[in-house]
User: Which sequence fits this backbone?
């Protein structure tokens, strides 16, 4: 596929190692995606010298100076009040104005989401955006959403998340007819809340072009039972962080096992190469880059604690989705939902 | 401590390997807890020959014949209709009548819970029971509830779960002032649903004798940030199963790493003894036995797929809690909540 040139907004001031980690990440991304240029938002005095350390990078970047920064601890209201001179506001405004096609930031999640939503608004027919990302599973990757954008979700949100997640999976994982499941406490139809039961019934009975599996449980995420796991932002966030915590616990148990005797230290030397493959496979940096799906523009949140390699991966998510025009594909599926389907798909109206 | 003799109800017919696994588990438990005797509920013709294979076991057991079994796939209404001749009904009835002090079953969770609740009712001042169990963490074990008894919980439930979880932790983990946290999507006070915010405020501001930490996130479960993690049954169940799925995924990645080359197979031989310690530490059978906390009687659910060792551990949970009189300790804490505290602890009344 011949790729059209694209420009991305980059927030240079967000994340633990900003702006150095961010600029180093852009440099790494530059060699991977030669058709991408960057508007870098942030403190010009701090950014320029770092760009200068990467040969040839300046030709791919334009620095747009922003005066203020959004702190990690900042409340939403305070940030939005001071907002319009921050790198996050200016970066998403550039997407809105069509200067860039997407935006990557490792900054404060709540502020990033709120400002992006204020500037970009949701796609037509989408009530709320969701935070969407990938988990490793037995066979590859599971798309999961919402990972924390909305603590409360209604039936309509869950149905829309299912459609958006399916489009994301098609594009990112290249699966033709992704299998979609709703996260529940059991796979039987009688289980769970009224909300999920109604969402399931809509996904099952409408003439939507969706490959709906039904209910899945927490362990199905890592099993890869379905390609897309849909849930509300509260459950999704707890589930994501439980998985991270469990993986860390396991790693620390292993580490102490390897260090517990001379014999096991020796054995570790032998298995190290194979073990490194496992570590690479489950490297959280590989999965860095969660999309605020459902906005008019590609807005990707990088983990605040990632390094340059991880930040480049978050840029990669944005590039892929812009290249493949995710939002057009979502809009088409939504048209199908609201026009070709029976009009009264949500029995309680917009609830 | 001199232990008073106790008698437990055992459902011989629940679980994948029933009745053999159950009876083998009772035999294992017999050697661990010589002060415990058992009423075994189930098909006498099947059970008797298995008991006979364990020398001396018969002296500790009385078989109460039950005609019907509850299938794993059975709906609640059907089971309750046919109910009174099943081992689950009869086992919990024995607790109600004072013939036994606790009940262990590996049968259908929903039916077990419903019948136990019908027979035993909740403790005074407890609106709903919760499913409560232990997770391994970096420093020991985390108590977690609700793991799936109630998909919806109100403020009152969450506060009551906190008190019950604290009592469970004191007794099972021997911690004097267990630290209690509410599971949320962030640790800041402004985050999460209104329900958890209100529960948090009650736990913080009442004169309850509770060591309340505030909000915790999904990764805090494995980190062991607090001794007791409280959440609704939907989130708790998804979180538990996500952790199980992640651990299995990690194990399968490791297994394929160890098998991937001659060198790593050799290395595996060296690290095997240390690795076995990790496997023992995280052995799900060790954590088998979840309590339906909040009922008038100790009711413990064993995993349906466990073996005799695992079933004996579930019996161990019941024995510990009967020996140490968990329900008395819960009742005392609740008295403190409703009598010594300001009377209007729940601002919205019983919601």
Assistant:
């Amino acid at each position: 596929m011949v790729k059209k040139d694209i420009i991305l907004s980059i927030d240079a001031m967000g994340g633990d190692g900003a702006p150095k980690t961010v600029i180093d990440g852009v440099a790494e991304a530059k060699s991977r995606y030669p058709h991408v240029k960057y508007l870098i938002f942030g403190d010009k005095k701090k950014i320029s010298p770092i760009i200068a350390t990467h040969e040839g990078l300046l030709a791919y970047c334009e620095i747009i100076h922003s005066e203020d920064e959004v702190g990690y601890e900042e409340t939403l209201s305070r940030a939005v009040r001071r907002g319009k001179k921050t790198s996050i506001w200016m970066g998403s405004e550039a997407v809105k104005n069509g200067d860039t096609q997407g935006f990557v930031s490792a900054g404060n999640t709540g502020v990033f989401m709120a400002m992006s939503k204020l500037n970009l608004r949701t796609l037509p027919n989408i009530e709320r955006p969701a935070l969407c990302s990938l988990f490793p599973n037995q066979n590859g990757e599971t798309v999961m959403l919402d990972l924390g954008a909305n603590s409360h979700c209604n039936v309509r949100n869950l149905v829309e998340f299912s459609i958006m997640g399916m489009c994301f999976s098609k594009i990112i994982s290249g699966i033709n007819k992704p299998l979609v499941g709703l996260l529940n406490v059991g796979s039987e139809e009688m289980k769970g809340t009224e909300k999920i039961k109604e969402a399931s019934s809509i996904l099952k009975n409408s003439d939507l072009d969706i490959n709906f599996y039904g209910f899945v449980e927490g362990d199905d995420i890592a099993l890869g039972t379905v390609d897309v796991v849909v849930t509300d932002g509260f459950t999704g966030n707890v589930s994501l962080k439980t998985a991270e915590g469990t993986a860390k616990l396991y790693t620390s148990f292993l580490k102490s096992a390897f260090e517990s005797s001379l014999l096991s230290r020796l054995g570790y030397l032998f298995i190290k190469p194979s073990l490194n493959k496992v570590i690479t496979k489950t490297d959280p940096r590989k999965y860095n880059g969660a999309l605020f799906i459902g906005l008019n523009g590609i807005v990707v949140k990088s983990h605040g604690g990632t390094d340059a390699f991880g930040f480049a991966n978050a840029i990669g998510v944005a590039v892929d989705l812009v290249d493949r025009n995710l939002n057009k594909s979502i809009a088409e599926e939504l048209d199908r939902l609201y026009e070709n389907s029976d009009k009264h798909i949500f029995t309680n109206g917009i609830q």
